[in-house]
Design goal:
The protein has 191 residues and is an all-alpha fold. The protein folds into two domains: 43 residues, Arc Repressor Mutant, subunit A; 133 residues, Tetracycline Repressor, domain 2, CATH 1.10.357. Helices cover 69% and strands 0% of the residues. Helix 1 packs antiparallel against helix 2, helix 4 packs antiparallel against helix 6 and helix 4 packs parallel to helix 7. The radius of gyration is 20 Å and the shape is elongated.
Length: 191
Amino acid sequence: MAIARERKFTTDDLFRETGNVLLAAGYEGFTISALAERLQVSRSALYKYYDNKDELISDFMIHEMNRFLAELREIGRLPDFESQFRYLLDLMFKRKMIHELIGSVQQIRSSTPKVKANLERLDRMHLDMYACLDSFIAQGRREGKLRSRLPDGLVLGFIFQSIMIPNHANLPYGDWVAAIEDILRHGIMNR
């Protein structure tokens, strides 16, 4: 009798499918079994690398945050607030999944040393993200593009939450992004 060889998968395969299962099922519905099925491998193939789903999900989030931060750091290379604003908006829509998955991290209950270390690392990564965004806000204030009476956190909150607004009107993607950008730039009231 021949022994079946385990199908190989890459880290990219693993993390892509982890994201897909998390988005489809949420944290509570995420299982190693569902992930193994999508990767067409046995559960034991995944348990070779991760003791539980929290280790995997926290590793996945570090991977995604690293990708996001690498791109976000590029914002400082852009010459002015207008180009930085456009870049940030494009990046947020491109990496919308990370914003959707942040809730998964907040649900992690495991307290293994690896998960604790990953969660601490994610906290530091969030601080790095806000350091980049503080520079962005400071640039906008220096150029007189942002109203001085609006708190930084509120401005950033509006920008970040805007990508989560559902497109119930089914506008084409470009039109939807342009409408959100218009609201962020000019508000909803006629002047």
